[in-house]
Target: Protein kinase domain-containing protein
Amino acid sequence: MQKTPFSFDLQMFSQNFEFNNKEIIGKGFDSVVYKVINKQDRNEYALKLTSFKDLQHKFNFQQEIRLLYHLNHDHIVKFYANSLDGSCILIEYMPFGHLGKLIDQRDIRIDIRIVKSIVNQIMSAIKYLHSMNIVHGDIKPENALISRDFIIKICDFGFAIVANSPNTKLRGGSEGYTAPELLINENYDAKKCEMFSLGVLFFVLFMGYRPFLSTHPQKQDKFWNYIKNQEWDKFWKIFETKNPDIGFRNYIQKLLCADPKERYTIEEAMQDDWFKSNQYTAQQLAPHLQKLLIKQ
Ligand SMILES: Nc1ncnc2c1ncn2[C@@H]1O[C@H](COP(=O)(O)OP(=O)(O)O)[C@@H](O)[C@H]1O
Ligand SMILES: [Mg+2]
Model:
């Protein structure tokens, strides 16, 4: 496969690729992802197809293409090509699907060292993006995929923005992962919003369920209200049977705090002593992930 991304038309696509019995490997809000096979070398790829429901959606998908074209990072899914009409993209196939798989169907907690190492891989992608003023905008387990070599890579740049001015607005997000300031629609720092979503992802991966269902002021989520009112003791009491250790609690508080000024930046989050200690490299993590995924 060529290194530089290319554009293809339908004829070129059908000459070079075939569907794998139309196998659907994923579905998003308004996209379907198929597994396709290169007819020459039999390598597998993922084809993300979208229908342009409205102009906003068309913009989101074109933004995803524009950004993926330029991105190059070990923990971001590799982009190969897009169709000339901009309705589908060809990306690296990630056979183990998304991280949500690790959360569902399990009754025991994943070892904190494994969780930290997974989150660290996602954070290194976010650090790369934030250093270029790009904000992913929809960090959640469903948008983090597992490669053949058990490397974590983020996908789905449909809500990503280039935050060149301090008040650039985000275009979306997923309920339960969105920072409170974004919903109140004050001026906000999009990178700090991303750190909040990372906090929810970390919490979910370790605890097995979400810390709250919504941060929306109209929803009056009881669990979120504890955090908003800085009643962390009451919040942690809900989870006491799982007895998360003090290092985890303190770290989560630096990500899920309601005040973005108190919240860690990506650099601070990666430099935190508790987070940094006791981590696996991507290579060391691979056999642990393999074990977890194959157990299911
Ligand atoms: N490259 C890929 N390899 C394997 N599965 C994928 C790939 N890309 C996406 N998926 C699956 O499809 C789902 C939807 O893709 P995503 O890009 O997140 O679309 P949407 O923008 O509609 O949310 C993902 O959550 C994942 O399960
Ligand atoms: Mg998605």
